[in-house]
Amino acid sequence: MKAALSHYHARMQRVLDHIDRHLDCDLNLDAVSGVAAFSKYHFHRQFTATFGLSVHRYIQLARMKRASHRLAYRDAHSITDIAMDAGYDAPDAFARAFRQRFGQSPSSFRKAPDWEPWLAAFGPLDNARSKLMQTTYTPEDVTIRDVAPTPVAIMEHRGDPATIGTTIQRFIAWRKVTGLSPKTSPTFNVFHSDPSATPPAEYRMDLCVGTDRPIEAHGERIEAGTIPGGRCAVLRVVGNTDNLEPAALYLYRDWLPASGEEARDFPLYCQRVTFFPEVPEHEAIADLFLPLK
Predict the structure, then answer these.
(1) Does residue 39 surpass a pLDDT of 90?
(2) Contacts of 191 (CB under 8 A, 6+ apart)
(3) What three-state secondary structure class fits 269?
């Protein structure tokens, strides 16, 4: 029974992966059901029963999520191109749908996103994706690495985690001005606070880029620092890298007590290896580092 359920989930996961990779294509019911070799006459009900929303709704939300990421973080993409890639025949139709969902026009969102309605709008999509995402881990998923010290430039986010998108926008814009591309300069997040135990106004996280160049602030508050070297337990998270809490919980609650290791006096941090929307969402990768003595 367990093997049959695992096989069924694997077929459904293939569907989600196919949708992620083919958001620019015609994702009709015949094509999508065929990916998992399910009957098209039953697939719609199967998908809805598994994920809590219809195939059509899932595809709409996935396209809109990619579109909103491009609006907020990728200013090289025109709104017209983003609208077409999201499956709309004209920018005005895209603008109407976008405003209805988020309460802002695409151009207004690009300038100053309101992240609260954005997070609420994608709740059903995130819930659907999490049903088949890996949220449980085993000791075999954890490796121990000797990490070299990494000089970094730091932009601090302090305040409600729900507003981190605004800090990310500033961080990306600053990196473009300074020429510190993610392709050549690694990206890190240092988690100084536990969001489940910290009042939102006091939450703190550092956005970092690996560089040993002199810091050019260009009007931003940027500080030089170092992610220290040493032994680290490393857990790779693939897919839902927006939510690293299940991986962090596993490291602290399960892996660390059983390993006989002790945590070093430096916060949990991650390296962003690949990013959505540059790669399909299920291919986004983050390595989570727990510093050890």
Answers:
(1) no
(2) 205, 248, 267, 268, 269, 270
(3) strand
